[in-house]
Every structure is written in C-alpha cells, then in structure tokens.
Amino acid sequence: QVQLVESGGGLVQPGGFLRLSCAASGFTFTSYAMSWYRQAPGKERELVARISDLGGITNCADSVKGRFTISRDNVKKTVSLRMDSLKPEDTAVYYCYAPVRAGAWGQGTQVTVSS
Predict the structure, then answer these.
(1) CB of 109 within 8 A of CB of 5?
(2) Is the sign of the CA dihedral 87, 88, 90, 95 positive or negative?
(3) Measured between alpha carbons, how far is 21 from 108 in angstroms, rounded to an integer?
(4) How far apart are CA 91 and CA 99, in angstroms?
(5) Rounded to an integer, what is the distance from CA 74 to the centroid of its chain?
(6) I want to staple 16 with a disulfide (CB 3.0 to 4.6 A). Which of 12, 42, 54, 95 is the partner?
(7) Residue-level pLDDT at 104
(8) Mapped to the 3 state alphabet, what secondary structure does the chain carry?
(9) Is 20 left (phi over 0), alpha (psi -120 to 50) or beta?
(10) Stretch 12-25: mean pLDDT
(11) Dihedral, 40, 45, 49, 54 alpha carbons, nearest 10
C-alpha cells in the first residue's frame, strides 16, 4: 500500500522558515522522482518543487526559487522541503506527490505565514 505522510507545517511569521518532511512507504522509493505541491484557498494546486529519483536534479517554481530547497534521503525514504524567507502568499496546504501507479498524494500539511 502506497503511503505518503507529511509533517512539519505550522504557523510562522513572514521572513521565517519551516521544514516539511514526507515519509514514503509501499513502493520502490529510489525509482521515482518526488514532488511538493501546494494549494491555497480558492486556487488550483500548483507544483512547488521536484527532485529526481537519485536527487541529482531539482526544479523549483519561479515563485519560490532561491527561497525553497527540496532534498531527499533515499535510505530513510523521505523527501523534505526547506522553506526560507516565507511570505504570506506561501500560505497553503502543502502536499507530497509520487508518480506511482495513478499518482499518490499525502494528506497535506497546513503552512500559514502571518504576523
């Protein structure tokens, strides 16, 4: 059974940082690129960052480039998203995604950036 479990969300002030983590199980983790998406209220879900199967290639959305860093640990089967210099517009539910079978999503973790 494919499972993705996110953690690390919360409330942070503008300019602060958070680190999200996603624990994966039920599939061959090293065979798949992994991604983080986010969905803000009233908006469509958007891709935030992606990392290749072995971690050598990463991509970030222009809106977070230079502030967010995606990484993975293929031994622990986790993928992380380090978010620095957070802005109110980063407020959203953040989801971990794996292109396994029809696509697998975590349950999401809320990130709120507010003073």
Answers:
(1) no
(2) positive
(3) 11
(4) 25
(5) 16
(6) 12
(7) 97
(8) CCEEEEECCEEECCCCCEEEEEEEECCCHHHCCEEEEEECCCCCCEEEEEECCCCCCEEECCCCCCCEEEEEECCCCEEEEEECCCCHHHCEEEEEEECCCCCEECCCEEEEECC
(9) beta
(10) 98
(11) 140
How many CB atoms neighbour CB 34 within 10 A? 25
Do 87 and 112 contact (CB within 8 A), yes or no?
Answer: no
Count how many Cα atoms sit within 13 Å of the Cα of residue 89 in the half-sphere of its side chain. Answer: 5
For residue 90, give both structure tokens: 């980063």
Letter for the amino acid at 112? T
Give which of 36, 14, 31 is closest to 109, Cα–Cα. 36
Reading the block at residue 22, the tokens are 């996603």
CA-wise closest residue to 95 among 79, 83, 77, 108: 108
**Assigned token pair, 43:** 């908006």
